[in-house]
Design goal:
The complex is a heterodimer of chains A (283) and B (350). Chain A is mostly helical. Chain A is built from 14 helices and no strands. The mean pLDDT of chain A is 86. Classes of the chains: A mainly alpha (283), B alpha+beta (350).
C-alpha cells in the first residue's frame, strides 16, 4: 500500500516536473528545428492564419544547427545586447560587493542609534516593486544626467537593499568572540571585516551574487524605462517580434541567453541554498 | 564539479566574445556596398532620330522632242547629276529620218498654203472663224518649231543633257522607245537647297515639335545643327508613322546621300533628377528608388536602403525627373548585390 502511494506521488511529481521544465525542452528542440518545420508547427499562432492549434514534436524531425549559425553569424545585434547584459550585471554585482557588503557588516556588527529603524526602512524598500519607485528614480537619474547610460540601471542596482538584507543574516552569525580576539590582536575594523567577516560569510556572498546575477541578467522594466537608446538594451529585450522567419533564431537566442544563468546557478547552487535559508532567519 | 562549471562559464563567455567579432566581420562583408547620388536640377532632353535621304526642294522635268527614238539611257533613278550630264541619246539615223520626213511634210504644207492664197474665194466665203489658210499657218509653225528642235538635237549629237544639278527621281524612257515629250526624265533640283524626309514612329511623336532642335548627321560624320522641322505629316502609306521634313543647305550635304535626323526636345527644368540606373520598376510597373536612411539600431547607427515609390515626371535614356524627392534625399545609384527594402548597406566613398 505504501509502495503504491509512493508511486502515485512520484507520478504526480514527475508530471509536475515535466510541466515545469517543458518550456526548456520546447526551446531546446525548437532551436534545432529547421525553418520549414517551425513554420509548419507554429504558423497558426505566429501568423494568426485561421483556426487550429500549434503543433510540437519532442524531437526535431530533421535536426539542424542552422538557427544557431544564423544567430551567431548574421545577428551582430544579439551580441551587442549580450554584452550590455554582461556590463549591467557585472557592474551591479561589483557595486553590491563594494557597497552592500560593508553596509550589511555595519548593520550586523555595530550598535548605533536608530539601527533597527534604518534596517526596517531597508526591508520596506526591499519590498517595494519597481513600479512604485520608477518615477522617483527617473527624476533623480534625469537630474543627474544619467538617462540613456548604463549607469541608469547599474547605480540603483548597486544600492539595492536585498544583498544587505541577505548578508546581514550571514554576518550576524560570525562569532563575536572571534571578532574580539582579532581586535585584541590589534586588527583594525577594516581588517576584521576583510579577514574574518568576508571569509566566514563567503557562502552568503556567493549566494547573493548568484541571486542577483539571475535578477539583473533578466532585467526588463528598468532598461525599458531608462534606455531610449536601443544600443544600450540588454539581452532580455531581444526579439520583440517573433515571426515564422526568425522563429528558429529566436529560440536559439533564448537558449544562449539562458546559458549564463544556468551555469552560474549550478556553480553556486550549494551556496544559493544557504543564502535562501539565511533570508528565512528571524532577526 | 564546481570548478568545471566555472571553467565552462568562462569558456562560454570566451565563445561569445569570439562570435561577437566574427558576426561583426560577417556583417561588414555581407552588407551590400552602394554608390549614392543626390538629386539635381536638370533639363530632361529627349533624343529621337531616323534616317532619311537628301532630296532637292523642287522637281524638274527634262523633255526631248516627241517621237524621237531613244538609242540609250545614261542615268538611273536615284543617281545624282550635274549640269550638262547626258541623260539619254537619240538614235541618229532615226533622228535624221524623222527630220527628213518633217521637212517633206513642211514643204507639202507650204505648197498647199500657197495654193490657198491664190484661191481665196473658194475657201474663205463665210468670213467667220478660222480660214483654212490660218489653220495651215499654225500647223506650219508647229512643224517648223518641232523641226528646229530636232535639228538642235541632231546638232548636239542626239544628246539630251541635264540643265541643272540634282538627283534623278524618275526615268520614263527606255532604249528603243520613243520619247513622249511629257517629262521623259524627272530630277530633284539641288540648286534651291535640299530637304531630308525621315520617318518617325508614334512613340517619337511627342518629341517632334516645331521648336525642337534638329541636328543632321551626314554619312561622312559631319554634323549640321540649329535646324528646325519644316513640315510634319502622318504617313498615309504607313499608319502610325510620321514623315518629318527638314531643310538643309545644299553646301553641306550631297543630294541623294543618306543622313540622320536627330531631334532634341525638352526645355523644362526639373528640381529632382537622378540617373536612370537609380530608378527601378516593379513587376506591376510602379517606379521606385532606394533612399539611404540612417537608422538607430541595436548595434548603433547604420545606413539602410529604404524603398520609396516615386512618380516620374519625365525621363530619357540617361536621367529621370522625379516627384516627391528633395535635394537632400540620397539615392542609391548602384549596389554590388541585390537590395531589399530595409537592408543594411555600406556606402562607398565617391
Amino acid at each position: 500500500m505504501k509502495r503504491m502511494k509512493a508511486r502515485v506521488v512520484l507520478f504526480f511529481l514527475g508530471a509536475a516536473a515535466f510541466t515545469l521544465s517543458y518550456p526548456v525542452f520546447f526551446l531546446l528542440t525548437g532551436s534545432f528545428m529547421g525553418q520549414d518545420e517551425l513554420r509548419e508547427n507554429l504558423q497558426v499562432c505566429l501568423q494568426w492564419s485561421g483556426e487550429g492549434y500549434a503543433r510540437w514534436r519532442l524531437l526535431p524531425l530533421y535536426p539542424t544547427l542552422r538557427s544557431y549559425v544564423e544567430l551567431l553569424m548574421d545577428r551582430p545585434e544579439f551580441f551587442t545586447m549580450f554584452w550590455n547584459s554582461v556590463k549591467i550585471t557585472a557592474g551591479v554585482l561589483a557595486g553590491q560587493l563594494l557597497i552592500g557588503a560593508p553596509a550589511a557588516w555595519g548593520f550586523a556588527r555595530y550598535r548605533f542609534p536608530f539601527r533597527k529603524s534604518f534596517f526596517t526602512i531597508y526591508i520596506i524598500f526591499m519590498m517595494l516593486p519597481f513600479q512604485v519607485v520608477q518615477l522617483s528614480e527617473y527624476l533623480v537619474l534625469n537630474s543627474l544626467h544619467l538617462m540613456d547610460t548604463l549607469w541608469a540601471v547599474i547605480l540603483p542596482g548597486i544600492f539595492s537593499t536585498f544583498p544587505v538584507f541577505v548578508l546581514y543574516n550571514f554576518f550576524r552569525q560570525v562569532p563575536q568572540s572571534l571578532i574580539e580576539a582579532a581586535r585584541l590582536d590589534g586588527a583594525s575594523e577594516w581588517k576584521v571585516f576583510l579577514h574574518i567577516g568576508i571569509p566566514i560569510s563567503f557562502p552568503g556572498i556567493t549566494a547573493v551574487l548568484v541571486l542577483q546575477f539571475v535578477e539583473y541578467w533578466n532585467l526588463l522594466e528598468q532598461p525599458v524605462t531608462f534606455f531610449k537608446d536601443k544600443t544600450l538594451w540588454p539581452l532580455s529585450l531581444y526579439l520583440p517580434e517573433i515571426t515564422p522567419e526568425n522563429a528558429g533564431a529566436s529560440l536559439a537566442a533564448s537558449v544562449l541567453a539562458m546559458m549564463p544563468s544556468l551555469l552560474v546557478f549550478f556553480a553556486g547552487q550549494e551556496y544559493l541554498e544557504k543564502g535562501i535559508a539565511a533570508t528565512a532567519i528571524k532577526e | 564539479m564546481r570548478y568545471y562549471l566555472i571553467k565552462t562559464t568562462l569558456g562560454f563567455f570566451l565563445f561569445m566574445a569570439a562570435f561577437t567579432i566574427i558576426s561583426r566581420a560577417v556583417f561588414g562583408i555581407t552588407a551590400p556596398q552602394v554608390r549614392t547620388v543626390l538629386p539635381e536640377q536638370k533639363k530632361i532632353t529627349h533624343h529621337v532620330s531616323s534616317m532619311g535621304q537628301a532630296m532637292g526642294k523642287q522637281e524638274l522635268a527634262v523633255n526631248a522632242p516627241a517621237d524621237v527614238k531613244v538609242q540609250r539611257v545614261c542615268v538611273a533613278e536615284g543617281e545624282p547629276i550635274r549640269e550638262g550630264k547626258t541623260l539619254f541619246v537619240a538614235e541618229p539615223e532615226e533622228l535624221s529620218l524623222t527630220i527628213e520626213n518633217l521637212q517633206q511634210e513642211l514643204k507639202a504644207l507650204q505648197e498647199a498654203g500657197a495654193q490657198i492664197q491664190e484661191e481665196p474665194i473658194r475657201f474663205g466665203q463665210s468670213g467667220k472663224g478660222e480660214t483654212p489658210r490660218t489653220e495651215s499657218t499654225v500647223e506650219e509653225k508647229t512643224l517648223q518649231r518641232h523641226l528646229q528642235e530636232l535639228r538642235d538635237l541632231q546638232a548636239r549629237g542626239g544628246r539630251i543633257c541635264a540643265d541643272g544639278r540634282g538627283l534623278i527621281t524618275e526615268v520614263n524612257v527606255k532604249a528603243g522607245d520613243k520619247t513622249t515629250g511629257n517629262g521623259d526624265i524627272r530630277y530633284a533640283d539641288a540648286s534651291q537647297g535640299l530637304i531630308i524626309t525621315a520617318r518617325f514612329n508614334e512613340a517619337d511623336r511627342e518629341y517632334l515639335k516645331k521648336k525642337s532642335s534638329i541636328t543632321v548627321e551626314t554619312e561622312s560624320g559631319a554634323s549640321i545643327s540649329g535646324l528646325r522641322i519644316r513640315s510634319m505629316a502622318a504617313d498615309k502609306e504607313m499608319p502610325g508613322e510620321y514623315l518629318v521634313t527638314v531643310e538643309v543647305s545644299d553646301k553641306k550635304l550631297k543630294i541623294g546621300s543618306m543622313a540622320e535626323i536627330k531631334v532634341e526636345s525638352g526645355d523644362t527644368l526639373y528640381d529632382a533628377c537622378i540617373p536612370r540606373e537609380a530608378l527601378h520598376q516593379s513587376e506591376k510597373g510602379a517606379y521606385y528608388v532606394y533612399v539611404v536612411k540612417e537608422e538607430e539600431t541595436l548595434i548603433g547607427r547604420h545606413l539602410t536602403a529604404v524603398r520609396a515609390d516615386v512618380a516620374v515626371s519625365d525621363k530619357n535614356e540617361e536621367f529621370a525627373a522625379l516627384e516627391d524627392l528633395t535635394a537632400e534625399d540620397e539615392i542609391i545609384l548602384e549596389a554590388d548585390r541585390e537590395l531589399e527594402d530595409g537592408c543594411r548597406i555600406r556606402r562607398l566613398e565617391p
